Amino acid sequence: MNPEQILFFVFGLLALVGAISVISFRHPIYSALALIVTFFAQAGLFVLLGAHFVAAAQVIVYAGAIMVLFLFVIMLLNLGRRDREGAPTGAKLKGIGIVLGILFAAEGIYIAVNARNGTAVASAQPAPEAVTTYGIGELLFSKYLLPFEVTSLILLAALIGVIVLVKREKPTDN
């Protein structure tokens, strides 16, 4: 058995144990830490497959950014109930929902139209220009610029939502 096969089994076992630990721990922080272990084990498997960029993206995006988001949610769920005096009314939320629905429908139509032209759907074979990191960046900022920008706007909206939730005024005891 060569060292690559040994590492494959080690990373695979580590990913399996981490995944089982995510659902078996009772405390959500421990589950989040087990999920980080699973993400790192998957990144190790990607390195063994020669996909170094995917492994780096796995660690940066999932083990980094997504886990920070999960920990924010875990911390917010542990907050006590607060008064909702400053909360938006149902009419405001309905209006925001309608605007967002129209925007998402427009994005869906745009993607569907471009899918017919073959620009928004990945082909079965990777494009030769996307083999390098430079090629991925070139495609990301030319052909797939709209989905990239929409994703950044969605992340910005999520960040603003988290800030609004965290910055609530504490209720006064009278």
What is the structural class?
Answer: mainly alpha
Estimate percent helicity: over 70%
Proportion in β-strands: under 5%
The residue ranges in which pLDDT falls below 50 over 5 or more consecutive positions are 79-83, 120-125
Mean of residue pLDDT values = 75
SSE string, helices as H and strands as E: HHHHHH
As a whole number of angstroms, the C-alpha radius of gyration is 21 Å
Q: Strand count, sense and closure of the main sheet?
A: none
Shape: flat
Using DSSP, what is the number of strands? 0
Query: What is the total number of structural domains?
Result: 2
Distance between the termini: 72 Å
Tally the helices.
Answer: 6
Layout of strands and helices, then pairs:
Layout: H1 3-24, H2 28-48, H3 52-77, H4 90-117, H5 133-140, H6 145-166
Helix pairs in contact: 1-2, 2-3
How would you portray this structure in words?
- This protein is mainly alpha-helical.
- The chain contains six helices and no strands.
- The protein folds into two domains: 1-78, NADH-ubiquinone/plastoquinone oxidoreductase chain 6, subunit NuoJ (Four Helix Bundle (Hemerythrin (Met), subunit A), Up-down Bundle), CATH 1.20.120; 88-174.
- α1 (3-24) packs antiparallel against α2 (28-48).
- It starts with a helix and ends in an 8-residue tail after the last helix.
Q: Which characteristics define this entry?
A:
Four Helix Bundle (Hemerythrin (Met), subunit A), 2 domains, mainly alpha, 174 residues, 6 helices
